[in-house]
């Protein structure tokens, strides 16, 4: 029979599970993290884990949704939507997202390992991932679709435009593969400028 925990114990244990999940998912990934690994810092049995989360994928999802609001604020509200025009908005979005990816190991993991997000979606309603109000990817798609409809972006499928933006975000994870890695900051700045200008040929 699972142990009974007081409200204070539940809050403390959930905090420990969230912290161990954040650390282990970042360093090992979802597949290589076991329930034993997750519960060890909290000193609870594996069976007790299910009093807090339905699965390790549910823990992963909660960690992700917890970060989404802050990431959306930094990349969408304060960058993409705060600019005077579409081109500048794309530039600010890309730079802000690169900043998040290079300073937040968990979010970098979430965004650069789509197979883990697919595993979460298989265990949970996909809407629980895509439908989160703070989801910055959904907000980006909405922005691109709106600006594409206004003629402020090139005549390409919105999914293709978002794909191009996502391709830029792969650069920080591959900076060491550049012919001259020491020029990474300049390469990033020029790439962002070229992509933003190419996707939004005219300032709006």
UniProtKB/TrEMBL annotation:
Alphabetical UniProt keywords: DNA-binding, Transcription, Transcription regulation
SUPFAM superfamilies tied to this protein: Homeodomain-like
DNA-binding region(s) in UniProt: 34-53
Pfam families the record matches: TetR_N
Entry-linked InterPro entries: Homeodomain-like_sf, HTH_TetR
Domain HTH tetR-type: 11-71
Domain of life: Bacteria
Name listed for the protein in its UniProt record: TetR/AcrR family transcriptional regulator
